Amino acid sequence: MSRENLPEQSRGFPAAQRPAGGGVERSHGGGPSLPGAHEARTLGFVPSPDRFHWWGELSNDVKAYVERKVGPAVEWWSDLHERERDRPYAVVLGPNGLAVTTPKVNQHGQKTQTVHIDAFVPSSLKHAVVQQLPRRPRAGLRSLMSRGKREQPPAAPQLELTAAMRGVLGNLPLEAQQRLQTPFLGAQPIKHYRSYYYGNEEDLDMWLYLAGDRTVTFASGHRTLPAGTDPQHAAWHLVCYQADVAR
User: Could you tell me if 141 and 110 lie in one domain?
Assistant: First the structure.
């Protein structure tokens, strides 16, 4: 992995809007058993500019550096940073790595972006499509619970994640949760993670990743949820990615 500090130079050119999955656009042994689902938390929504706005706040130098390091973006998002509330950060998944930028102020008082890179083993980025039809519970959970206490669904994994991140994961189909977390059930800890969603309760897009020393997992997709419906009955179309980190 590598880390660089680049001038922020806000008001760079915004990314072209392209379909997700195209170029740049808008948390062992014989093998662990598959984990159960986290409990979904209610996703809060506040008025905010979308990812294209925040991407446009990054300098062309930062964008060019990220593309040199990770290649053309496969998935990405940008949002205002939780600490520097008027400044952006960005996450870019490319064929050659994962880049995460963080707004900083250097010793001269200048606004900069620190860029963290998890470089991938060449050609290791793989993906799988996960779909969930509307109004169907995650596989097995309701049916197991309805049979009484003799059969319990598997427990959710106890990974080093905040309650908020676990709650975001809980909104995803069980298969997506498993694809994101299974590489970290053994000796590999999660080093950093983030999530982002945009839209409203009925219609939203979501991106998130988990990164360790050896593996990065990433998911992006769209959720449709009729008003008043339990989140586990939502319709989802997701792409889940996994790559090996170069060491």
Answer: no
189 and 82 both lie in a single domain: no
Residues 243 and 125: beta-carbon distance below 8 Å: yes
Nearest alpha carbon to residue 77 among 93, 61, 65? 93
User: Can you give the residue range of the structural domain that contains 50?
Assistant: 2-26+36-119
Return the sign of the alpha-carbon dihedral for residues 132, 135, 136, 138: positive
Judge if 150 and 97 occupy the same domain: no
User: pLDDT tens-digit profile of 20-58?
Assistant: 333 322 333 444 556 667 777 778 788 889 999 999 999
Boundary residue ending a domain (104, 119, 134): 119
- The predicted-structure confidence for 164-213, as pLDDT tens digits, reads as follows 999 999 999 999 999 999 999 888 999 999 999 999 989 999 999 999 99
Bridge partners for 207 per DSSP: 196, 220
Q: Residue 227, class by beta-carbon neighbours within 10 Å (0-12 exposed, 13-18 middle, 19+ buried)?
A: exposed
HSE-CB at 90 with a 13 A cutoff on CA atoms is 32
Two structure tokens written together for 90: 């960005």
Per-residue burial over 175-188, b = 16 or more CB atoms within 10 Å of its CB, e = otherwise: bbbbbbbbbbbeee
Last residue of a domain, one of 71, 97, 119: 119
Query: Do the domain assignments include residue 31?
Result: no
